[in-house]
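new request in #modeling-help
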Amino acid sequence: MEITSKFTDSALIVYVDGDLTTAFSSEAGAEIDRIIDDNLQNVVINVENVNYIASTGLRVILGLGKRLKEHGSELVICCMNSTTRSVFDMAGFSKIFRCFDSEEEALGNF
Amino acid sequence: MANQHLDIAWLLICAALVMLMQAGFSCLESGMVRSKNSINVAAKNFTGFCLSSAIFWLFGFGIMYGTSSDGLFGKTGFMFNDTANSWLMAFFIFQIGFCAAATSILSGAVAERMSFSGYLMGAAVISGIAYPVVGHWAWAGASGGGSGGWLQEIGFIDFAGGTVVHSVGGWIALASILIIGPRMGRFSTKRIAIHGHDLPMVTLGVFLLWFGWFGFNGGSTFGITPEVPGIIVNTSISGVFGTMVALLLVWRIERFPEVTMILNGSLAGLVGITASAHIMTPQSAAIIGSIAAVVMYATSKLLDRFHIDDAVGAVPVHLGAGVWGTLAVALFADPSKFGTGLGRWEQLYVQVIGIGSAFAWAFGIGIFVLSLIHWLLPMRIDPRGERVGLNTAEHGASTEILDLLAEMDAQRSANDYSNPVNVEPHTEIGQIARQYNQVLADINAEQERRKAVTENLRQQTKSLQLMQGTASAANQATTIEDAIQACLESICEFGNWQIGHCFMVEDSSKELVSTNIWHLDDATRFSAFRQATQDMKNENGLGLLGQALADGKPVWSNDIEADIDSSRQKVSEQIGIRYGAAFPVLVGEEVVALLEFFALDQEALGDSTPINRSREYYESVLGVMASVGTQLGRIVERERSEATRFKTVVDHMPAGVHLRDLDGRFILVNRNYEEFHGVENGFAKGKTLGEVSKSMNVEIPIDENLVSDREVINNNAIVEKEHFVVREGELRTVADTKFPILDATGKVTAVGGIQLDVTELKQAEEELQNAYEIIREQKERMEDELNIGREIQMDMIPLVFPPFPDRREFSIFAALEPAREVGGDFYDFHFVDHDKLCACIGDVSGKGVPSALFMAMTKTLLKSRANDDRSIASILTHVNDELSHDNESSMFATVFAAILDLSTGELTYTNAGHNPPYIKRKDGKLERLDQRHGPVVGAVEGIVYKEMRLTMQPGELLFLYTDGVTEAINSKGKFFSEERLSKKLAAKNLKKPEAYVSRIVGAVKTFAGEVEQADDITLLALKFHGTSDGELATQYRIVIKNQLSEIDSANDQFLSFARKFKIPGEISTKLNIVFDEVLNNIISYAYNDTKEHKIEIEIELSSYRLIVRFIDDGVPFNPLGIKAPDTNQSLEDRKEGGIGLHLVRSMVDGLSYQRKIDKNVMTLTKKL
């Protein structure tokens, strides 16, 4: 489980490496909060290295999305595999977060 | 003062010149329109001039030159009469011309569709309001008395009326043509240029205008001053350059020097210089004239573009060039000469104000007042008037050419050219009319000649037609009577005979017999004559008839009184018969008929048309008649031979044929009829049935016969009856068919009959009927039996599929296609205990009810025995003993029975003389179970059957069938055969048992085609899927502690299990999420203490699904009670709860919960 990040002109990109399961979700959430700190700009979560996301992971994403929205920013997701994509669809998250196939596309859409 | 007289003289000359412009306008405008409107335009010009002069005198002059009211309008000098001031009188008459000129501009623009009255109202608006007011603004001071108008005061320069006269006239013209719209067809889809009818006249008009313009501009100094020559030079130069530029433009653009455009160019030049002729150099005048032409041309195109129809181009010329000329004052003149003290650009500004105010007033007044008038009293002529031209419509005026055209039109519409048209002497139109009359006369003469020739030709062809007509009537007529009738009609028509009649010559006596073949022009009038003819007796030697009969040649008489036979002499005199003719119809030399014709005296006929009955006439006609006679003779000959042939045929017919007339008298009987009834040959003819029956040796039902005759006659229908006759002491049945004989009009003229002795036939028929009755009864009995058999059979076998919907370890399907006659096939399946399914198939020997009953017995025994006995061999042994004991019928059944253990896949089976079934293995290979374990059941008592075992793997199929399948026969006599069956079974795309069964039934039916199914076709397919609870499933167990960190360990264990058993990655990933969610739920919420608990996870894997059970000892919790979250909510509204269970539910195929004693058991199923 590893969280890295990169600031670009238009957004903060957060790279998640590992599965967002019960064991790691809260840890991942805390780490992302630490990176963002008070800098509530647009955020792209790159889940290229995530096999699956459980409901605990979804809660972290939902919380962060709400917080950014309150500050006029947006959270988007990119590089999902078919399993994470289907979890997003089942949970109805693909209706509330924009999802992109690539990081460039995500950045290009702010 | 001396100078003043000169000035007055000059002013009066100029006044005359300006008035001459009216003549110019008249010529120009009336030439520019079509001839049908020329008079109207001229009349408008002339009347308009007078009307505007009157108005101008009454108050126009006062408004224009009277004492000014704030520079807006004058208010004195109405009905001008200042006779004391001779210069002012001259000035007044000069000014009248100006007012009239402004008015005349309108008449051209609106030409060809504005009504005369409408125009006069327009003229009144110009001369009474529009022109005097603008005139006042610009020129009020010119009369010498009082202050100037407001435009004059601010320095507006308009020397001779470029704005005051031309623009004002132009604005009103524009307003008018906008209101009344374009001329008909001018801007219709196909744009039609409407050309003027007299361009030389237009040219003359322009010359006159130009000439008048010398006074118009030259007089505007109001005296003979040194400037006058220069003004006239400028005027001319501008007109000349306007002409040249217009010529160049139109030549270049339109590709030909279009005359009206050139003439309008000159007028534009003249208008252009009008505002500034007094202060321009000739060079400037040339430029102004040139540009005026360009402006005119452009304006004219602009109007076309907006579909504004100006009939003569008044708006481009007077408004376009007028506006341009007014601007040009400031642009081209030397500012020192302005005399207004303004610089060039200030002057230009003032000129623009002048133009604008003239527009506002004249166009405003024009649109407002004329629209109002148009609304009250339409100023546009009605479309009809517009079409015929305003000359005729408005003034009743006409022109010679129109008169001539009207006359010619009348001739054409009446299609009568017999009378010449009226010739107006000493005119060109008169010349045309004379020529037209000449041509008419020639044509009429030619028509007469042709008529005569045609008449002649008609006469000649008529006799030819008669001959041809006879020939064709002869060929087409069905009877000789028809042919003669047709000839009679044609000859009567051809020779104007009112009466025509035909006599036949009796074969034997050679006497003339009157016939019904007549032509009578008037049946009532000639009825007496007809009667007299029919009453004639023995007149063979007398009159025309006698002569024709004796000579065998046509005869005629023009004095029939002398030549007719005595018995008709009187009647023919009474009705006025004068002419007569007759000709014979010859067969060889023999006269077979005579045709006679009579015509009335002209007087008696009451007809004055002369009819030629000269000797020459008769000679030509008689030639034709002779020819017709020969033709008819040929028909008679043909008829006779046909009659002979017909009689031969009828006589030889193997049935009695007879023909009776409406009175019931025999016309014809054939030999067969005579022989059957024992009547002598020819005896019956002319006698009734009653009369003939007396001589018959057969008793016949006369009344019955007469009744059916009536029926035929009354209903015009065919009547078929059978009746009995007694012949030679024997009762015989006669089939009698009677039918109507119709004449050409469809009337019944006779009754035909055909009789057949059907006695033997009837007997045979009866016997056949009895035999058929017996067969039918037997057949019904058989059918009943068949039905009973089939009912028994179908009642015995299970027909509902799937039979055990809750059992997933296998699927089964079977079908029995019964043959028409029951073959005794059966199949069955039932559970003998929870895991053991018994299936069997069988075929009873023999057919029908007995075999159905035997089948029922076999099936029932098998089933009841199977419930107590687990060995299939033992079951069959037992059933065989039961059936063979006291089996008197010697029936037997082939049976294959098997028991499948669903928990192991073990199949135990016994084949008692049945067709070898197949096992389809997992790899697709077919295995034929060809061992027999004993003979058929029911045949020999005490047989001990053996059994065999094999193991079915999940996905393998057992296929049972009867010989109805393999022994189905096609039209070539070939069997469906086991070979075909095994090929079909091996097909790779078959999965479900239903597919196997239906595919093979289909194949058998296709194979058999039309051939009737001889034996029952029975098939059963059983597919084993593997066990649910049995040993075959792979089980795995994971136990973890109630700590979140343990979840990963559980997932890892599951993953290695999944990899080992090759569970697809996508499924194991989903199950990882499920594990995560469920375990998180249990660990986080199931325990209300802090003790350590165990959570068990049981995994059970079979070939088609995975079952996972989570067992915990936490507080009771039913996850199925949790509501799914609303996944359509927006980001703000989404709650965090419920997602986990929702994901679990979405990812598995089945989810159930049980509380077992003190444990929660949650079971998930996932299909593979």
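bot summary: The first strand of chain A starts at residue 2 and ends at 7.
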